[in-house]
């Protein structure tokens, strides 16, 4: 275990085209440590932290994760979300082919323990206006009771935290192929931003992601169709211009794009709730700001 070993691996990750693609498919620290080991480099999370910060400090531009350029100030977006059926997006056949291999339920996840952490009052906070007085009061109460073991705003499973199960290798290979497929469609760099499994009653409470501005694309799918289109999982956001709560009901094989803003006046407050018996998966990506032009002709 050493920082040197980790530094050497990060160098390979920048220079070797295949490893570079694999790095774009990972969002978890455990994943990077595992991939390093696969390539013969042994390091731990502390080594990774130190090696990453010194790589960032003396990076000459070929860095591991380049910041997205800030959007021009006059490029305010009138539309805050776009949704499509996956089948309708040109070039998405290869994406659809990989999706079943990503919808995993790692056997290292303890679902009974997950269910114990469900809190009805937390779920109900998704009906409040974020930043409003009710939400602020509720949030202050939550912050006062927070313990380090649990993050109550995430009642979901981050698949990329689970690398020690038998299905991981095939899952990771599928993620890497998916990055290739999406880069073919968009003609620019695509990176995973998160791979989430929302079991029944899963939720992600109101948040803004303001530290990572730019366009995000999510591939969303389920274990089965919904019986009732009025009783589904949903994505909800606070419209930055009108202040209205917009609730987007979901269906299988859905692609959603939305834009994360950094301007304090235009933060993109959003939350996700799965109040159903279906299992929901969502795979997020940072996509080029030109994505709408790349998919020209869709409406
Ligand atoms: Fe988010």
TrEMBL record:
<protein>
    <recommendedName>
        <fullName>Nif11 domain-containing protein</fullName>
    </recommendedName>
</protein>
<feature type="domain" description="Nif11">
    <location>
        <begin position="1"/>
        <end position="48"/>
    </location>
</feature>
<feature type="region of interest" description="Disordered">
    <location>
        <begin position="53"/>
        <end position="73"/>
    </location>
</feature>
<dbReference type="InterPro" id="IPR012903">
    <property type="entry name" value="Nif11"/>
</dbReference>
<dbReference type="Pfam" id="PF07862">
    <property type="entry name" value="Nif11"/>
</dbReference>
């Amino acid at each position: 275990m050493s920082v040197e070993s980790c530094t050497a691996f990060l160098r390979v990750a920048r220079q070797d085209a295949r490893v570079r693609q694999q790095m774009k498919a990972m969002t978890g620290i455990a994943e990077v440590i595992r991939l390093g080991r696969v390539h013969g480099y042994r390091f731990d999370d502390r080594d990774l932290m130190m090696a990453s910060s010194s790589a960032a400090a003396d990076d000459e531009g070929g860095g591991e994760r380049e910041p997205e350029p800030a959007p021009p100030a006059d490029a305010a977006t009138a539309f805050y979300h776009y949704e499509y059926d996956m089948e309708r997006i040109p070039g998405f056949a290869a994406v659809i082919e990989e999706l079943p291999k990503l919808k995993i339920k790692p056997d290292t996840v303890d679902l009974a323990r997950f269910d114990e952490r469900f809190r009805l009052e937390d779920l109900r906070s998704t009906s409040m206006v974020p930043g409003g007085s009710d939400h602020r009061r509720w949030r202050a109460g939550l912050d006062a009771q927070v313990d380090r073991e649990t993050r109550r705003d995430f009642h979901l499973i981050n698949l990329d935290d689970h690398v020690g199960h038998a299905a991981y290798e095939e899952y990771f290979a599928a993620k890497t192929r998916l990055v290739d497929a999406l880069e073919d469609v968009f003609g620019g760099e695509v990176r995973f931003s998160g791979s989430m499994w929302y079991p029944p009653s899963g939720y992600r409470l109101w948040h803004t992601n303001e530290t990572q501005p730019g366009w995000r694309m999510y591939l969303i799918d389920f274990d089965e169709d919904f019986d009732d289109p009025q009783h589904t999982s949903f994505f909800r956001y606070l419209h930055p211009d009108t202040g209205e709560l917009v609730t987007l009901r979901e269906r299988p094989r859905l692609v959603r794009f939305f834009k994360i803003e950094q301007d304090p006046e235009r933060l993109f407050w959003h939350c996700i709730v799965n109040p159903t018996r279906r299992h929901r998966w969502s795979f997020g990506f940072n996509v080029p700001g030109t994505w709408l032009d790349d998919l020209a002709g869709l409406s």
